[in-house]
Specification:
- Strand 7 (90-95) and strand 8 form a beta hairpin.
- Helices cover 1% and strands 40% of the residues.
- By secondary structure, the protein is mostly beta strands.
- The protein has one helix and 37 strands.
- The strands form nine sheets. Strands 2, 3, 4, 5 and 6 form a five-stranded antiparallel sheet that branches.
Length: 511
Amino acid sequence: MCAGLALAAGIAVGGRGARAQGSLPTDFEDGGVVSGLEFPTGFTFLPDGRVLVVEQKTARIRLIVNGALAATDPVATIPDVRNTGGEQGLLGIAVDPGWPARPYLYVHCDDALTPAIRISRFTATGDLAFSADGSLTVDPATRYDLLNDAPDQAPNHNGGTLRFGLDGMLYASLGDDGSCGAQDLVSLRGVLLRLDVSRLPAGPGGPAPRALITPADNPFAGSADANQRLVWAYGLRNPFRFQVDAFDGSLWVGDVGQSAFEEIDHVTTGGHNFGWPAYEADAPSPLSCPGAVRGDDPVYFYDRSGFTAAVICAGSYRRPAAAASGFPLDYEGNVFLNDYYKGFLRRLAPSGGGWALAPPVAGQPEPDNWGVGFQNVSDWAVGPDGALWYCRQADALFNPGTGAIRRITWDLSTPLANAPVQFFAPVPSPARGGTRLSWLLPRVARVDLDLFDAGGRRVRHLLGPEVQSAGPHGFNWDGLDDDGRALRPGLYLAHLVADGRAHDQRVALLR
């Protein structure tokens, strides 16, 4: 099997030419937050804005408080982490959504004692509510293993992301471990898992009984196999980084390719099969693996033949409702991705019912690339300040101690409260059997939403009137009228009244 994402300090050829600062369109700025980190690979935010960073090779957790490392540093060094392989180590971190009442940190790592991937929970102590200096500590003895037997026979293809969804469930990515296992729903290879951590006992222990961490509404919850019951999506090669869409809870996945394509997959519901190892993007792969089928095509892919490549998904940009500033409103819902080795940063926008590169904007450094100079970047997140934060593992030569957390800001950002209501084009469009309507409110507003046919007759009252908070909102229309009958194909008009003003979007309904 061809090696995928090589995140080892000894493999520096892919990072040549990396810059300390990326090139971006006019009025966007790339600025540093904290430097001097030792090969950081992922990060996450606490609800109060503090930042937790994991270092791949040292297995340390670092904490950023008000733009500097915390007084107590590191927060922890995770024991028994294997870091000998190029992609092995401490790879991902997530914070329990019940923080600080549930002061739990979850990590994704390679186990040093067995050939397995381990997902573990640790209990934090210290200034949990951020009432003093913000420092935290973690006693390694508090470790509770959720799962400690996902295969790790190869030094690569480990996955590595942990994120909590809007549903409170913990999602985790596992690579195919350099095997044909991505179509095998019981092998814990090439999958996204969905785990329920709400019923775990306090304190150390584990591994958790599978039944205790299996959500009842997982797509394979009725399977006879306990591993399959944990699976949310499958048919992935190395889903190293995925992101949760803050608007609807869907997952945006960067799946690292083998020899032809890098792809972005959109997981809107459970049970999706993305086709690896039968297909790489929309093309048959050269592998011969039993039981492989095409599955779902990606929403976007790019040709990586002829050069080393690894896609890193930055996810969908959603301006936090509490953020005083952020990106321009026409960026709302756009999806960002970078290539770890080539260093380009791309922006995707809805197009014809799918996704495509957004049209270039003023000062964009290259026609296809919204930004350049983002080599060695391994993780992204929209911060509570509305900026797009990222983790750079090292400089161009992978020198020790050159990792950094940085962020992209828009220096003309206007306060959200002064912006107009945005009513976005339906997705998908044209639609078959229904579509999603979404809007962004700059402030608290009374909202009413209706659907009219081409003759101006109201065929469905969708929502309201109701008062909604500032921020993103949406409605999934099922293609039915007020009497529960399927509407005929044709052109319809979605009519949103918000903040005392009317806003319209056309909805094309296909058979």
